[in-house]
Amino acid sequence: xxxxxxxxxxxxxxxxxxxxxxxxESEQTSLGxxxxxxxxxxxxxxxxxxxxxxxxxxxxxxxxxSPFGGDASGQGPPSSFKQSSTDGFxxxxxxxxxxxxxxxxxxxxxxxxxNWTPPFHRKTPDQITRLKKSIFNNFLFxxxxxxxxxxxxxxxxxxxxxxxxxxxxxxxxxxDFFYVVEKGIFEIYVxxxxxxxxxxxxxxxxxxxxxxxxxxxxxxxxxxxxxxATVMSAEPGCLLWALDRITFRRILMxxxxxxxxxxxxxxxxxxxxxxxxxxxxxxxADALETQKYPAGTTIIQEGDVGEAFxxxxxxxxxxxxxxxxxxxxxxxxxxxxxxxxxLNDAPRAASVVSKTEVKVATLGKDxxxxxxxxxxxIMRRTKYEPGVEVIDPxxxx
Amino acid sequence: MxxxxxxxxxxxxxxxxxxxxxxxxxxxxxxxxxxxxxxAAAQPQTAEEGKQFVARYSDQQHPLPxxxxxxxxxxxxxxxxxxxxxxxxxxxxxTLGTGTFARVWLVRLANxxxxxxxxxxxxxxxxxxxxxxxxxxxxxxxERSVLADVAGHPFITTLITSFSDHDSLYMLLDYCPGGExxxxxxxxxxxxxxxxxxxxxxxxxxxxxxxxSEGVAYxxxxxxxxxxxxxxxxxxxxxxxxxxxGNRETYTLCGTPEYLAPEVIQSMGHTTAVDWWALGxxxxxxxxxxxxxWNSNPIEIYKQIVSKPVLFPTEPAISPEAKDIIRQFCxxxxxxxxxxxxxxxxxxxxxxxxxxxxxxxxxxxxxRGPIIPPVRYPGDAxxxxxxxxxxxxxxxxxxxxxxxxxxxxxxx
Lengths: 397, 412
Description:
Chain B: Residues 1-82 are annotated as: Disordered. Chain B: It holds the Pfam family Pkinase. Chain B: Its EC number is 2.7.11.11. Chain B: It catalyses: L-seryl-[protein] + ATP = O-phospho-L-seryl-[protein] + ADP + H(+); L-threonyl-[protein] + ATP = O-phospho-L-threonyl-[protein] + ADP + H(+). The complex is a heterodimer. By secondary structure, chain A is of the alpha+beta class. Chain A contains 8 helices and 17 strands. Among the domains of chain A are: 125-251, Jelly Rolls; 270-381, Sandwich (Jelly Rolls). In chain A, 23% of the residues lie in helices and 19% in strands. The longest helix of chain B is centred in the middle third of the chain and has 21 residues, at 193-213. Chain B has helices at residues 2-12, 31-41, 47-56, 73-76, 128-133, 137-150, 181-188, 193-213, 262-265, 273-288, 298-307, 320-329, 344-349, 359-363, 399-405; strands spanning 80-81, 90-98, 102-109, 120-127, 159-164, 168-174, 216-217, 226-228, 234-236, 243-244, 254-255. Chain B is 35% helix and 13% strand. In chain B, strands 1-5-6-4-3-2 form a 6-stranded mixed beta sheet. In chain B, strands 7-10 form a two-stranded antiparallel sheet. In chain B, strands 8-9 form a two-stranded antiparallel sheet. Chains A and B meet through helix 1, strand 1, helix 4, helix 5 and helix 6 of A and helix 1, helix 7, helix 8, strand 11 and helix 11 of B.
């Protein structure tokens, strides 16, 4: 058929969607386009290179075409077609409709009225070490910061499983908890029916055992889904650590939410960024990376080319200039420095050294430009106040 | 009804370029428009008014520029509550789709006026008990309010009105007779690049509008939620997870496993950037027939999403431009993700994958759909799968629940 554009044929001056623009001189009448489209559509299935990808085994006739006016009684919906083979498809790929999943909606504590604080259950240093080893390789925990990690460790609660044969989770049931094995052995059973069945074989097949340090039920930390297996204690005197979804999600949400608001309020204070819209500030806040430095670290060095700017999230830092033994300025939480690096490649006008352990949020010039475009054009929105140069010792004279 | 309305747009709405299809942008509202505004404020109160309003709907649509969708008086009365309407004012023809707590019916007006006999609609029915049990009360309210706000966009399903009764919530939508893109994709196994590009382009315009004009994240992009209208253009449906974000991130995990963005899986707070990730997955699935990350065990899918790069099969061959746009969408770091970086949707539109696309022509539906659904008459539903009947026994919505929850449903 004419004008159909396929990979390899694109790049000529043709229409990227097959050159069938209906505008302009090809203005249509109310019935015209349909019949016309239909004809071409039929034609398409015969001669178009699309045939390969629209080749339905078991149906020799047209693909999407020809039902108009014809006897379509034998036609089912498009997906009623059963594939005779799955050539080129991954084995076992489920071809059915996929269901959406959703957790309960939660609002950050800081934006609501309740005073939620994460539960805290004391643990011995040994227990903490073992738990860290168990969970922080898991992809649901591996990206947590120190504060989140320690809250999670505190929130894990002891769950003794005194006897053998106790089902901790049951296949097919709703799941709300994630478990880490502290002591004892557990067995995993899967019944192909999808849920625990009555009768002696109702557990299904034993597929694995879990030993101390192992964990199970992590999907429950994401949303409420039916358990995929039954997990049962294999000996008496077992001990688990349990964490429920709401606690897990709230810990992550509250700390992320607070940090984001903190960053946004810091950014509002930076005169260089005063012309940013709220949307842009939240974009930057989203991209800021947290870094920690021990006391005595030179965070930026006088004379170096500036590439990033910093917000001081916690701790204290001091500003030194060459030839002056004492700090010329003192930074505390909420202060920012190095932001002129966003504007030009001038060398740093001073050094900033951490006085205590500090936590900074930082973003490079690259990242800034990637997210918001050239800094210069943002600056041009209003004139950058020259007064800042006096306040900021890092500005190149 | 969508099919008839669309035929009309082809004859009336397509003369000349964008500007000629719309009223002058700066002209003050005419007296007639003001009247419509005033009328719009009065919601239909009786069943008869409600039915008349519903019947009138079909004459109303042709694409307006995105900036005018919200202002246009013709859209103002769309998506409002009709206190007088009830399910008895409709004849339920057949089921078009089912979800975890909803069922969508093809309906027509009960005892229609002669000229309205051909008019059909899609009625989404949500059971209050299920909505509450699945903790989706917030989500259904977001769905109703977002749909009401975006009514009039050419590629988004139109919420005509909503109403409720003792145990159910109802959303009356335009009927999209072409069925799901999912069905065509599974039948075809995969789409060629021009087909994929056509749908991707229409989706880019949807996302640009939702994100940049409305501040809405859609959060459930997948072939199952894309319908085709009679002409083969996209209609995005199921706004069950759509949410107005403003400039804030949001935290509730939702979506479809294969399409979840890494930041959703890892509870890092997410934004409209999740939709661009999902568009990358979608284009991949269009071109190969399956998503890049999949497993029968959802946890394994999530592990791959957060840690594995998108890999392409050798067969079918995928063009470098397509691979590049997929990789740029499916970038774990949001500060590098196409669509989320500077330029936003504009940057997406200028990607080589869309080289040569005239975006105004996409918006005004001037490109012909690559698949023309076999729709024989306005109420033809052969493009939809058959679904089993509803279970007869239903958990009752009792007085205690009503007392606790009905206030949450007052917007319906």
